[in-house]
Structure formats: C-alpha cells, structure tokens
Design goal:
The complex is a heterodimer of chains A (about 350) and B (about 300). With about 350 residues, chain A is an alpha/beta fold. Chain A has helices at about 5-20, 35-40, 45-50, 60-70, 90-100, 100-105, 135-140, 150-165, 215-230, 245-255, 270-285, 305-310, 315-325; strands spanning about 1-5, 25-30, 55, 75-80, 115-120, 145, 170-175, 180-185, 200, 205-210, 235, 240, 260-265, 290-295. Chain A has two domains: about 1-185, Thiamin diphosphate (ThDP)-binding fold, Pyr/PP domains (Rossmann fold, 3-Layer(aba) Sandwich); about 200-325, Rossmann fold (3-Layer(aba) Sandwich), CATH 3.40.50. In chain A, the strands form three sheets. In chain A, strands 3-2-4-5-7-6-12 form a seven-stranded mixed beta sheet, with helices on both faces. Chain B has eleven helices and eight strands. In chain B, strands 2-1-3-4-8-7 form a six-stranded parallel beta sheet, sandwiched between helices. The radius of gyration of chain B is 19 Å and the shape is globular. The chains are: A alpha/beta (about 350), B alpha/beta (about 300).
C-alpha cells in the first residue's frame, strides 16, 4: 500500500514492523520511551512491545553500547538510539575496539546484528557539540556498515535492511530530514539494499554526489541550473557510506565527465576525499575537470547564525562550482528562493 | 588447575622459540579463581574474560589442542589464529569473549545477563576483570546498570594490586572498593584465599544469592601475579615490587596448596603424580600438533570481516 509518510514516520514504521516480525529485535537508549520519543521516531513502541523491548537507559553510552554487543552474541537484534551523533564519541571504544572486531576476532563464529541510530543536529544554535555527522569516522573502520538515509523511502527501507543485517550498522539521520514527506510503499517487505547508491535526479552535464541533507541542496541547485542555464545535473545519493558499490557513481561520471562531491561533513580526510580519489582512479581519462569537494568549513560549528550560515555548504555553493566547471557566466540568484531554518524543505523528493 | 599451571609453564618453555607470536599475559598465581568459580558453573553458563584469560579458557573449554593451535597462529586454533592469546574465547563452550582493552568485556556481560533474565533460562553470567578495570568508567556504568536491572550477573574482580606496574595506592582515591560497591544494590563477597575449594564455596554462596534474592554479586578476590604483566619472565629486579611479596604468597601457592590437600585427604601421591603426568602428556601432544599444523591461507585475511 502506498502512503504519504514523513521521514520520522518511516523510521518508526521500519522499527515497528521489524519488531513485529522478529521478537529478537528491541530498541533502547536514553529517553527512547519518554514523552518526546526521539523526535517522534519511537512513538508507540513501548505501548506495542512493552518495556522489555523498548526502554530508556542511564547516561552511560560506553556500557550501553557494550550491552548491545552482549545481547547480539546471544541472538538478539538490538537497536541503540542516540539523540545526537556527537554522543557516540562516548561509545567509540566499544564501537571501534569491540563491535567492529568481534566477529573477525572469533573467526566468524559470532554474528553481530546491531543497529545504532543517531541524529545529526543543525541550526538554532546546535553549535559545536550537537551538529557533527562523523560518518567518515565510522566508515574508516572495517567491520562496520554506515548508512545515511535521505528520503522517507530510504529511511524505511534502509533501516529495515539494517535491522535484518547480521552486521553492526550505524544509521545517521539528519534532523531536518525528519519533516520531509513522500509516497512510500508501507509493506514490511519494502527494503532498500545496503551499499547501493540512489540516482535522485538524472542528468548529462555534471554529476553531484551528495550525502544526507546535501541532497536537498543539490536538488535545489540542479533545479536552478536547469532553469537559468539549461543544463542537466545528475544527483547521486550514496545512501550507504560503507561498504559502498561505487559503480553507479563511476558510470555517471564517465557519462557527465564532471564531478562535484557535496558531503555533509568536513572535507579534510572525509568521505568526499574517498569519493574524489576513487572517481579520479576509475574515471581519470574521462574527466574534463578535477573532482571538486564541498563540505563544512574547517572550523568547529559556531552558534551565531551569520557564522553558522557561512559554516555549512549550500545550494548556492554548488551552483557556483557547476558554473565554473561548465564555463557558465555566474547567474543572478537574487530572485531564487533557497532553504533556510524558517523555510524548510518538506518534500516530496 | 594443574593443567592451567603447566600450560603456562610450557608457554614459558616454548616462547623463546618465537613460534608463539602473540603477547601472553600468563595467569600463574591466579589459577584458583578461574578454577574455583567455573567449577560451580554449568556448561551453558556464560563467562567473559580479560587478556589474562588462559585459565578461564582452559577451565571452560579444556581443549588444549585448540588452545595451543590459537597461540601458534595455526588453522587448528580456536579462531584459526585471528584471536591469539589476548582475545581468546570459546563461544561454543560459553566463554563468550575476552579483550585486550581493559574493562571492555564488562558491559558485554550485562547484555548476556539481560538476555538470560528475559528468557528466564536460569543461565548465569560471570565476568572476570582485574582491579585495573575498576579504574575505568565503564566498570561503574556497568555496575550501576546491573544493579538497576537486578541482573543475574557475577562480577569477579581478580585483584593483584597492580595495573601493569601501577599500584592501587597510586591509582585509587578511595579506601575500599568493596565498601563502595556495598552502597549499590549489590551483594559483595570477598576473600584473600588462594584455595580453589574456598573460592568455589564462596561462588556457591553468591549463586544462591542470585537465585534467591536476585541481582548481581560482586566478588573481590585477591591474588598475586608471579610474573611480569606481559611475557614469560619474573620482573622483581626492576624494583617496583619486592620479591618478599612473592615469597609470602608462594607459601599459599594455589597448585601446591591443592596438591598437599589431596594427599592430606588420602589420595595417594602416585595417583596425584598420574594426574599430573597425564596433564603434561596432553599438553606436549597439543604443542606438537600445533607445531605441525599449517598456517591459515592468505585468503583468510579477508574472511569474516562481515557476516
């Protein structure tokens, strides 16, 4: 059945359906069953499945992450939820020294089906400690899988696939995407495979590879470029950060011969560098220009609005880079409307 | 216990051959705790350990072929050489994991105990860790959660008074860990005994507490580490601890103590000797097997990163 649902409802649907389908799935984390329910994404779980399968925890990210591993090697499928990605730094010892290694160190005797959901904050002063995405951190580690759903369909399908996967999966969800709505087949079997990129918009003139919220900016940029310059931008959302099948990206760049990576993260040593390196290796003789990377400024995220605006890359940055690459005269963008806190994108894609 | 002691002694003997390319944290002096606690556990009860895990592995699994296979890095090892000494475990035998990062298996034991509690299957979980681990935040986080959820869990603190080379007095700003743990909803049992029978009796009391009253039990057992933190040698010459301490503890050496008790109980010395000889023969065979076994193929490098 096709229904129009929001990203938050899609996350909730994936967890509800998987908990119904498989009694070994349970969800926990600080405040998962309080009145706010992790921005609404855990609504109804404690009522449907009881406090044994949906419960809050002490403020103890390190122990509560190791707890997940202990349950996973005993046949459970824990979903550990964090209101901000930044708080996962307190769990890095368990994630990087234990969870990622545990199957390998036991010669494949154990399976580690763990999902860690964490939200990326932005705006209204989220500042330096509530705004990080850190997908490159996690993607660097063999044994971990990292997903960043952008659309409601991906939120539902990727999260459900992650819950069914026998490996640890980190699911990073941008807070601003929670309000986006789209038509989604709400069947429990609506799955999106891990590791496969999504072509959000077809185009022939230039490829933009974007992650998480940057897809919203990239689609807006593509729309403006078409309107003002008549060029067609292809927008690719990897959706999975690691392990990723890069072929879709290579095929696109071989066709368009230009590539911009718009990553929702810092540029230095980031996922954008990984894509740029791989695209350069695989598409070297097809590229007409070097791969360009856009990302956060090389600073902590500031609180005050004017500096924060400067910190984040946006659609205008993408448009200007496209214009440079395609030798287009910079367009007058004064009449174009872009997204801001107050003018949120709500979809559909 | 004799098997554990002699495995360690044989590692000391063979280590200079450089065929055991894995850092070893030998448990000589510690044997009574693993032997005494695990003696009281059923085969499907679950344990977690540290890098000083040989005693736990041998008490829980007893498979010296797979033990030495793992230390020699061969395909006959428990994990075909991917774990080595520091990450040794035997999930099929209820030894669910050990780790070379201090304190890191403590929260895993919460997960095991939680699942067993939910399933009401009567299984117990025991997690072994050193006094150094009680310096780590994760120990206190885990203790709190275990008490909060009344988990059927045995915390086994193996206290040798040293974190590598740092003494308790150089690390801890409080007088008594057992006094502090007593402030939690946690039953505390403590002993300085090196007698495995005493350890087993105390373990039985702890298990009764879990069965009858619920909630975790914190066992605080003192012991003396005979050798250096990692490696096969004594290290008294470096002066950070005194050989007098060793002499004091050696008077109650767990293996000697148990041997003397057996003879006192009326077991013939020749029978004890037979048991000892059988253990040594088993170890020698396992070492020979490990020596002859092949290394894993290079393609194994890429196996089991993901399921």
């Amino acid at each position: 059945m096709i229904k129009t649902i929001s990203y938050r409802e899609a996350l909730n649907l994936a967890m509800t359906q998987e908990m119904q389908r498989d009694s070994s799935v349970f969800a926990y984390g600080l405040d998962v069953s309080d009145h706010k329910r992790i921005f609404g994404s855990t609504i109804g779980l404690v009522e449907k499945f009881g406090s044994d399968r949906c419960f809050g925890t002490p403020l103890a990210e390190d122990a509560m992450t190791g707890f997940a591993l202990g349950t996973a090697i005993n046949g459970m499928r824990p979903i550990h939820i964090h209101i901000r990605v930044d708080f996962l730094m307190l769990a890095m010892n368990q994630i990087v020294n234990m969870i990622s290694n545990f199957r390998y160190m036991t010669g494949g005797q154990l399976k580690i089906p763990i999902v860690i959901r964490a939200i990326i904050g932005r705006g209204w002063g989220q500042s330096a400690q509530h705004s990080k995405s850190l997908h490159s951190f996690f993607a660097h580690i063999p044994g971990l899988k990292v997903i960043m759903p952008t659309t409601p369909l991906d939120a539902k399908g990727l999260l459900a696939s992650a819950i069914r996967d026998d490996n640890p999966v980190i699911c990073l969800e941008h807070r601003w995407l929670y309000d986006i709505v789209d038509s989604v087949n709400v069947s429990p079997e609506t799955l999106v495979p891990l590791g496969e990129p999504n072509i959000l918009k077809n185009g022939v003139d230039l490829t933009v590879v974007a992650t998480s919220w940057m897809n919203v900016e990239a689609l807006k940029a593509a729309e403006v470029i078409t309107k003002l310059h008549g060029k067609q931008i292809e927008v690719i959302d990897p959706r999975t950060i690691a392990p990723l099948n890069y072929e879709v990206i290579y095929d696109s760049v071989k066709k368009t011969k230009h590539c911009i990576v718009a990553d929702y993260d810092w540029v230095n040593c980031g996922f954008s560098a990984e894509i740029a390196a791989r695209v350069s290796e695989s598409c070297f003789n097809k590229l007409k220009s070097p791969v360009i990377r856009l990302g956060f400024s090389a600073t902590p995220c500031p609180t005050t609005r004017p500096l924060e605006n400067k910190f984040y890359p946006n659609a205008i940055n993408i448009i200007r880079e496209v214009e440079k690459k395609l030798n287009l005269k910079p367009a007058d963008l004064d009449k174009e409307e872009f997204y801001s806190y107050e003018n949120k994108f709500k979809g559909p894609f | 216990m004799y098997l554990i002691r002699m495995c360690e002694e044989k590692i000391r003997e063979h280590y200079p051959s450089d065929k055991l390319k894995t850092p070893v944290h030998l448990c000589i002096g510690l044997e009574a705790i693993a032997a005494g606690v695990i003696y009281l556990l059923k085969s499907d009860d679950q344990v977690f350990g540290t890098y000083r895990n040989h005693g736990i592995y041998l008490a829980k699994s007893g498979n010296t072929d797979r033990f030495f296979g793992e230390l020699f890095g061969k395909v006959t090892g428990e994990f075909q050489g991917k774990a080595g000494s520091m990450h040794l475990s035997a999930p099929g035998k209820g030894f669910m994991g050990s780790s070379a990062v201090v304190g890191t298996t403590i929260p895993l034991s919460l997960g095991s105990a939680f699942v067993n509690q939910q399933k009401n299957n009567g299984r117990l979980t025991a997690v072994f860790f050193g006094d150094g681990a009680t310096d780590e935040g994760v120990f206190w986080e885990s203790l709190n959660f275990a008490c909060l959820k009344k988990l059927p869990l045995m915390f086994i603190c193996e206290d040798n008074g040293l974190a590598i080379h740092s003494k308790t007095s150089e690390r801890q700003g409080y007088r008594s860990i057992t006094d502090i743990v007593n402030q939690f909803d946690c039953h505390v049992i403590q002993s300085e005994s090196t007698d495995p029978e005493v350890i087993a009796e105390l373990t039985a009391k702890g298990i009764s507490h879990i069965r009858e009253k619920g909630g975790p039990v914190f066992f605080h057992f003192k012991y003396y580490r005979y050798l250096e933190h990692v490696g096969i040698n004594e290290d008294f010459q470096f002066g950070y601890r005194s050989q007098n301490e060793f002499e004091h503890w050696y008077k109650v050496d767990p293996v000697n103590l148990q041997r003397a008790k057996l003879i006192k109980y009326g077991v013939k010395e020749s029978s004890v000797q037979e048991i000892e000889n059988a253990a040594i023969e088993q170890i020698e065979k396992s070492i020979a097997l490990a020596n002859q076994a092949p290394f894993p193929p290079e393609t194994d490098l890429y196996q089991d990163v993901y399921a």
